[in-house]
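seq/struct pair 1
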Amino acid sequence: MSLQYIGLNEINGPLVFLDNVEDVGFEEMVEITMEDGSSKMGRVVQIEGKKVVIQVFEGTNAVSLTNTKTKFLGKPMEIPLSKEILGRTFSGSGKPIDGLGKIYAEKMADINGMPLNPVSRVYPRNYINTGISSIDSLTTLIRGQKLPIFSGSGMPHNELAVQIVKQAKISEGDGKNFAIVFAAMGVKNDVADYFKRSFEEAGVMEKVVMFINLSNDPIIERTIAPRCALTVAEYLAYEQDMHILVILTDMTSYCEALREFSSSKGEIPGRKGYPGYLYSDLSSLYERAGIIEGAKGSVTQIPILTMPNDDITHPIPDLTGYITEGQIVLDRDLHQKGIYPPVGVLPSLSRLMKDGIGAGYTRKDHSPVSNQLFASYAKVQDARSLASVIGEDELSEVDKKYMEFGELFEIHFLSQGPDSNRDIQETLDLGWDLLSVLPKSELDRVDTEVLEEFYNNERAVSRFRLGEKTIIRELSVGGE
């Protein structure tokens, strides 16, 4: 038997409160019929005894306290799923907005996903090639990993997200089963248009499923968008045997919506006003990445978040770092130098890359060349700090070599332009050419056998025209 409740006790922003309600569940969907016959959808977000709090998706405008009829539907929010969703664009709540009509569903699925047995998870291996040297070689993205990008206001994280979507690929044998689910939360109209236009112009739209939540859309939709995206990803991965890369941008907008929503419910705030359950809420999203035993597909996540005031200790990046397996940090100093993508090498890491690179995956020298580039670039920072005190002319010959290496590394390796797509072989060869600028005795992170095979100072001198002091600074950014 289905009951309708007439009237409401209270309206507060996007929330409505109802008393004397029995037999309802958390996250249950609700249909609210207004005085003029039109209806809005909502979901139960809080239950206290017989008092229920309902979050209304389209807002509470024109909702009356007296004549509103409320009907509980007895099921959580579901999204229609079919392989037809590839190439389609949806709103944050999963409604088609591309003018191509509705989805003819093979099944309906709860957007909150199914709980996974941790024992059934398979350890991630095999890398995803993004075509970006600083990511592929130094913070390699492994299939089934969750690897966030920490950015800041005004940084080119949107451009980086588009480049990853355009260039990301997996091994040749599985390439046809690779697709991307892209969810944008709280973006402006021009940014949403930029995403759609870029994917269409690059000809990759047929392998992308897009969820777009605009900044003027209801905040409830912002909290739903990543769950809809991940539900689609799980369906394509575990039921259609595809390898799915999920890009979520911007998770800061999601967390701000969560904070506003929590405040309107009257909950006691935690750090910086965010709800005390922010960690578990983010976990419920990030932990939906991985590989499941017996499944042929996988879900890989790249959440992108902007750090307020570039503060990596802010609750959003701080908690994200606890849950995920590393991070890619964009550096404002590199960005101001005109380097794109401005990946800060030293604070970035990928905790799973050690088991997804090397012989059989990328190349046998990947791990040593990566370790040596990290170590050498760290010494560059020491040399620069020393030079700022005593002057560059007073540095030792070795420190001057490190200064030269650092400049070449940033111009040739880190900077490559938004349309440059390097394969892993090209990236590793470039890394060796840069390391060959340094004296062989300084390369202490590489075995002698590997060093003898790949070190080539003559090739480095020829490639970078060493000795012509002006050439380094005169090269256009990203030039070879």
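seq/struct pair 2
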Amino acid sequence: MSASETRHVIDGPTGPLELKHLHAEGEPRFLAVVCHPHPLHGGTMENKVVYTLSRLLSGLGGEVVRFNFRGVGKSAGEFEQGIGETQDLQAASKWLREQFPQIKPFWLAGFSFGAFVSTISAKELNAEQLISIAPAVTRFDFSQHPMPECPWTIVMGDADEVVDPKTVFEWAETLPDNARLIKMDGAGHFFHGRLVELREKLEAVLPKGD
């Protein structure tokens, strides 16, 4: 049975913040927030990779929020190079935690620019799982921020036309043991025609029970 989804506009750091809440399929066991790609290049919470991640996490028992960063959709404000957007993520996370105070485990996920925002926020938000899809390491400096200490799954296509795959693979080799890299042969940045495979690869490695 498909999980239900509701739309909300909450108070964000620069005004209204638009989000969608996808309920867990079955018994909720964790909370999750998913971050979308670059706002100035068409990124929104309706992105297909973001939607795929949200459905996956809902199926694993997550109460899942995806949201529009400032300046996107009905979210107020202007793009702030990822730093202001971490405040948007904090607001969305706070709202979700307030809805389900009894559920403590917290997961983060992000795609491209959203992977940058979620990665640099993971430690402060006490994330217990982090998922980074095609992280934009060629466009944003991850090294200037605390790196996550939780289990961290990175997925990267070797035919990515937006973020250089070789740079990501080399960067991943420098990360500590809590990070694991999944390479998808022939997959481009937006995983066209590969979303089912992306979901299956993540399902195979993410925890499915308490």
